[in-house]
Amino acid sequence: MSIELTAQQNYQTNGISTGPGGSGFWITDNSFVHVSQAIDHYANGSFIDNNYIYDVDAVGIKLIHGASNNYARYNKIFKAGLYGIYIVGSNATAANTTGNVGTANEIHDTAKGRAQWPQHTRGGIWLDRHSPELGTVVNNQIYNNVVDGNNAVDWGISCSTNQPNEIYGNSVPDAGTIGSV
């Protein structure tokens, strides 16, 4: 499947969005160009594999609101406006985003796409607690990814929670101005 939206679409346009309560999705071998968020995923037990994501306004792959036990693997993400992969807690439901695995992804040129977000920090992969009183990120694994910001990102990989998550074996040749985890 190839999804391309033009500039007439608003910044909230998603390529694929899965709702809460769903499970077992296979989101594979897709191409996303010029959307706001390529994959906005709330579901559990899914595979997000081998997708090509190019020049998205905000986020390449987002796991949020209790999305758990998902695998994001072998994706190629170029020119995401904010983050290549965003694993975030919840500001809407009392559920942790947990048990997700991000591995063997290639993320390049974040913050160099058509949308610019100078007021936000930008980076390759972010594990964000969002709203710890409702749900945070815990027990996720980020390993064997390549994150190259090409001198435009603030950090390569960041984790803004004190909960246990595993981040190891990644290649971050340009960690940005703030650095990596």
Terminal-residue CA separation: 35 Å
Low-confidence runs of at least 5 consecutive residues: none
- Strand order, sheet with most strands: 1-4-7-10-14-18-21
Instruction: Indicate the radius of gyration in whole angstroms.
Output: 15 Å
**Strand and helix order:** EEEEEEEEEEEEEEEEEEEEE
Could you estimate the helical fraction of the residues in percent? under 10%
**What is the count of helical runs?**
0
Number of strands: 21
Query: Which range does the strand content fall in?
Result: 35-45%
Name the average pLDDT: 84
The main pleated sheet reads as: 7 strands, parallel
Structural class of the helix and strand makeup? mainly beta
Q: What would you call the shape?
A: globular
Brief descriptors of the model:
181 residues; mainly beta; seven-stranded parallel beta sheet; globular
Overview of the molecule:
- The chain is an all-beta fold.
- It has no helices and 21 strands.
- It has strands at residues 2-4, 14-18, 26-28, 31-33, 37-41, 47-49, 52-56, 59-63, 71-73, 76-80, 83-88, 97-98, 101-103, 106-108, 123-128, 137-138, 141-143, 146-148, 155-159, 166-168, 171-174.
- The model has no long low-confidence stretch (mean pLDDT 84).
Q: Summarize this, please?
A:
The protein is mostly beta strands. It has no helices and 21 strands. Helices cover 0% and strands 44% of the residues.
